[in-house]
Specification:
Layout (H helix, E strand, L loop, with lengths): L1 H42 L3 H6 L1 E9 L2 E4 L1 H11 L3 E11 L2 E10 L2 E12 L2 E8 L2
Parallel strand pairs: 1-6
Antiparallel strand pairs: 1-2, 3-4, 4-5, 5-6
Length: about 130
């Protein structure tokens, strides 16, 4: 009887772990999808759509500087344009952060980079691009 109870508890534990894993995977996919949509809209210079994926108080950091706030980001890219994300690879989720390797191309540069994107409540809270 005791063995049977332990076996049932173990089975329940395994089932609970499986259920948690499935939820985490779906959340990971949603976070990666959000970042992909932002990058696609940015590459297409669809600034309004790209801005819709950003939190109101987003912190957007690139080697050229930091922009704070969705409206500041939108005004800047509308006036000056933005970089193009190319050859995006190795997207992965680490907690609430999506990390990806890519090539970023701008009017006067082309550079390998790593993007670290913090996602909270379905919005991009921070987007940081650094050299590898």
């Amino acid at each position: 009887m005791k063995r049977r109870m332990i076996s049932l508890m173990f089975l329940l534990f395994v089932l609970l772990l499986s259920a948690c894993g499935g939820q985490a995977t779906r959340n990971d996919e949603e976070m990666i999808s959000l970042v992909e949509k932002f990058q696609t809209a940015t590459n297409e210079e669809n600034w309004e759509e790209a801005a819709s994926y950003l939190a109101e108080d987003v912190i957007y950091t690139v080697p050229q500087g930091t922009l704070v706030g969705r409206d500041v980001w939108l005004a800047t890219v509308t006036k000056e344009g933005g970089g193009v994300f190319e050859d995006v690879q190795n997207r992965r989720v680490d907690g609430n952060k999506v990390i990806a390797e890519m090539i970023v191309t701008g009017p006067d540069f082309k550079s390998p980079a790593i993007a670290e994107v913090v996602v909270k409540d379905g919005k991009i809270q921070s987007y940081t691009v650094t050299p590898p």
